[in-house]
Structures are given as C-alpha cells and as structure tokens.
C-alpha cells in the first residue's frame, strides 16, 4: 500500500521554484505545508481535467497564505494509466504528484466494479497522509470558482455536501466529489478493512456508496456551493441559477468535458451553458501554460 512521492522529480512547481538558491544564498529548508488539497487521476484520459482543476484552485486561492499544497494521486500502470509526459504536465500545473499502489481488499473482486469507477477506491489512500492536519479531496471532474479557506475550519473528522439527483434536490446521502477529512492511520486501516465487509460494500460499488454507509450519521454536512452538481442545471434550474454566483466547486457529473469537437456541448444540448463556461476556462488555462498546440480544447 506504499505511496511514492514524485513531486520533487521535476522541481518545477511554483513552491519548488521559490526554494531555488537566490544570489548564492543557501537554499531554504522546505517545510511541509499544514494542509493539502488533493485529487486523483486513475486513468490517463482524466489528466486534462486534473490540469484544469489545479489551475482553477490556484486562480481563486493563495496556497502560500493558506499553508496548503496541491497533491495529485495517480495510477501510472497499465495501458490506461497516467503517462510520464502527463505527470510532468501535472507538476507544471502546480501538483505534487504521488503514485500509489493499487489498494487490495480481502474477498473483494474489483473487476466487478463498473469499469469507469473501478479504481476509485484508491482514493482511500489520502486518509493515510498523516503529514497533513486536514485534507480537502476533490474529484478531477470538478472546477474551483471561489475560496476554499473556510473548509479548514470544518468541525469533526469528515465533511461532504449533499448529493443531487434528477428527481431529488436534497439527498440525505453525500456526494464524494468533495470531502474534507482529518487523516488518520487508524481510520485508513479501518476503511480498508470495512470495504471487505458486505454490510458496508456491495460487489459492484465504488467509493461513494461505501463511504456513505461507513460515515452514516457521522459526517458534517456542507452546503451545495461546495459540490455544485451539474445535474441541477437541467432538472433543478431555479436552484442552479439562484446559487451559481456563490458556488465554489462545480462538479461535472452527468457530462464530462471532452477533447473531440464533435462531442462538445453547444446551444440546444442539455448542459450547454456550463459546458461553454468550462471551455472558456480551459482556453484560459491552455494560454496560461502555453499548451494551445499540445492539448486539445476540452468542453
């Protein structure tokens, strides 16, 4: 279950550059930030979304003042893992990259989990990162449009925002696309153990159903603005329009940004306005890093 930190390999994150020797003076001793804002990319096709997430977080948050760093958990093995080239891009975008071994669970056949969720249980690794006091975890298909600072004041050990469905605006279950947690080795081992318990984890379920069962009646509820679910745009439009300005994290659940222009969502498509907003932000990110000729537009 080891996690390998690849963050120093390129030495190209903003914080790394700040630590280079200046005018012959000795290099500063790097102190580990108090907090981490994390995500995970388990299949290489999500790399561009992770780049966009990192850019958007830094656009709206001063990580130095926050005493936080960006940490991306990746899976690089297999035909669909994150390539070395994309790891370098993630580092350029400010992520400290950690590569983790695939978690194994006794009596659990992960091949039964739906293919697009098959590796999601690997996000449990972040509970073992006890070098941080608190962690904000975000799915890679989210975008930040505001400050995350108040989340560090979250009471308790675990917090998340409610899930939303086409027919349910207020679910009593949470969506695991944003979680605030206090790392703990004991909690990490407990989570891994309970995945093997059929009372907590069904054979074809990934992380969200399991975590809802595990933390039932034990989590702190966050407002919608920290996991503003795209499904609201089509099915709960009044609340989407009402809350858009205060939304901090937008979660692209029912439609993912795509690189193929023929799959882009334009006027007449159910989620066209949010997808065009994403495309505008993605163009801004490509221009900022000079990637216009390397990475296609996701929208």
UniProtKB/TrEMBL annotation:
Single Gene Ontology MF annotation: glycosyltransferase activity
SUPFAM superfamilies for the chain: Nucleotide-diphospho-sugar transferases (SSF53448)
UniProt source species: Orbilia oligospora
Pfam families assigned: Glyco_transf_8 (PF01501)
Transmembrane segment boundaries: none
Domain of life: Eukaryota
Protein name: Nucleotide-diphospho-sugar transferase
Gene3D superfamilies per UniProt: Spore Coat Polysaccharide Biosynthesis Protein SpsA, Chain A
Lineage: Eukaryota, Fungi, Dikarya, Ascomycota, Pezizomycotina
